Amino acid sequence: MRITLAYNLKRKDEAKPMDYFSEFDSPQTINAIASAIKSRGHRVDLVDADRPDLFSYFSQNRADLVFNIAEGTCGKFREAELPAILDCLDIPYTGSNTFCLALALNKGLTKKILKAEGIPTPNFQIFFRGNETLDPQLKFPLIVKPNREGSAKGIDISCVVNNEGLLYKKIREIKETYKQEVLVEEFIEGRELTVGILENGKVMILPILEIDFAGCGKSGEYFYSWRMKEYQGNKELGLLPSFHCPARLDKDIEDKVKDAALKTHRAIACLDISRTDIRLSKDNIPYVLEINPLPGLSPDESNFSLMAYAAGMKYDDLIEAILLSAAERKRSQN
Fold first, then answer.
1. Which fold has domain 123-186?
2. Where in the chain are all domains bearing CATH 3.30.1490.20?
3. For residue 239, is pLDDT > 70?
4. How far, in Å, CA of 141 to CA of 136, rounded?
C-alpha cells in the first residue's frame, strides 16, 4: 500500500509559550514510524500537516491510507483538522474520527459524558469568563488546567491550589496564556496510572503503566506536570519518576482500572488506539482524568510504547497493528 505519514514537527519559537509545541513529534519519532511501515513492505510518503495547502496536497496525492499522528495547529478542534480533510476527500486514516478527536480535546465535555456513563471522574467546573462563583460542592485541593490542551500543557505544581485566592489567580494566568476556558477539578491524591487500548480485530488492553513520583522530591512535583513529561529523567531538575509496567496492583483493582479505561474508550467512540490517564484514589477508585485518542508513539519515551513492550510487542508490531486495524475498517466499509 501507499501510506502517507502525516505529522506536526516539534520546533522552537521564542514568540510562543515554552510548551506550545509539546504535542508535536520529533524527527526521531517520525522516522521510526516511517521505518516501521516500510519494514512491512509499504511505500511511505511524509507530509507535515502544518503546510497551508494540505487539502490540495491530499487531493492531488491520494494515499491508500494515512497514518495520522498530526495534532493540528489552531482552533478549538485542532486535532480534528486533518481527519476532517481526509473525510471530505474519502481517504481512510488510522485512529479515531473527526468527532472523537474534537470531543476528547475538550476535557469538560468529555467529563460530562463520563459522568453520564457512570465512569468515575473528579468533580469539576468550567470557568468561561474566569470570575464565576466557585461551586461550593467542590472540595480543595483543586487543580487548574487549560480545558483544551494535551501533553500536560499549562500544568505545573502551582496549578494545585488550596484556597480561592490562589484559585482565581491561576485561572487568570491560564486564560491569559492559553486564550481559552479553564477546567477546575478536585485533585485526587493517589497513584498515577495510564492504560493503553489497541484494537486489531479485537480489543487489547495493554498492561497498566504506573508512574511513581517518589523520586521527584527535589522538583516539588508529584504528578504528571508539563515539566515532568518534557524533562523526565533530568537529575538536576529532580524529575526522576519511576515506571512500573505492569502496575503494582492487586488483580481486582487492576480489573477495575482496565474496565474504567475500556468504558471510557467506548464512551468517546475511539478507534484503533487510545490512552486513558487515571488517578487511583486512596480508597481504590479509578478516577479518569482524560483520554487521549492520539497518544504519542515515540519508540523510546512514549507511555503507549512502553505498555506495548510490556505486552510482548516490538515497535514495528505496534505500528503494524494500528495500520491493520485501520485497513480492516476500510475494507468493512466498502
1. Dna Ligase; domain 1 (3.30.1490)
2. 123-186
3. yes
4. 13
- What is the Cα–Cα distance from 290 to 278, expressed in whole angstroms? 7
C-alpha distances (whole Å) from 140 to each of 131, 143, 164, 192, 305 are: 18, 9, 9, 19, 35
Q: Where in the chain is the domain with CATH 3.30.470.20?
A: 190-333
Mean pLDDT score, 61-75: 92
Cβ(195)–Cβ(153) under 8 Å? Answer: no
Which range has the worst mean pLDDT, 21-30, 120-129, 138-147, 312-321? Answer: 21-30
Class assignment of domain 2-94? alpha beta
Q: What is the C-alpha separation between 325 and 303, in angstroms, rounded? A: 20
CATH number at 190-333: 3.30.470.20
Give the position of cell 489552531.
74
| C-alpha cell, 301 | 519515551
Cα first-last separation, the chain: 17
Contact between residue 252 and residue 242 where contact means Cβ atoms under 8 Å apart: no
**pTM higher than 0.90, yes or no?**
yes
Q: Which residue has the cell 504506573?
A: 210
Is residue 334 very low, low, confident or very high in pLDDT (cuts 50, 70, 90)?
A: low
Q: Which residue spans of the chain are classified as CATH 3.40.50.20?
A: 2-94
Q: What is the DSSP string of 217-254?
A: GGGT--S--HHHHHHTTBTTTTB--EEESS-S--HHHH
Distance CA 198, CA 258 (A): 13
